[in-house]
Amino acid sequence: MVISGIVIVGGGICGLATALALHRKGYESLVVERADSLRTSGADTISVYTNGWRALDQLGVGKDLRETALFLCGVRDISLDRGSRRETSLNGEEFRVLNKGDIIRTLANNLPPNTIRFGIDIVDVELDPITSDPVLQLRDGNVIKAKVVIGCDGVESVVAKWLRLKATKLLPYCGVRGFTNYPNGHDLGNEILRLSGDQATLSRTPIDDKLVYWLLTRKWTPQDSRDSKDTRLIRDSTLKYIKDFPEEVIEMINNSELGSLTLHRMRFHTPWDLLIGNFRKGKVTVAGDAMHVMIPLLGQSASLGLEDSIVLARCLDQEIYKLAGPEESRRKQVMQENKNVEAAFDRYVKERRMRLLKISTQSYLTGLLQMTSSSMVKIGLLLLLLILFGKSISHAKYDCGRL
Ligand SMILES: Cc1cc2nc3c(=O)[nH]c(=O)nc-3n(C[C@H](O)[C@H](O)[C@H](O)COP(=O)(O)OP(=O)(O)OC[C@H]3O[C@@H](n4cnc5c(N)ncnc54)[C@H](O)[C@@H]3O)c2cc1C
Question: 170-268: which CATH number, 3.30.9.100, 3.40.50.300, 3.90.330.10, 1.10.287.130?
Answer without folding.
Answer: 3.30.9.100
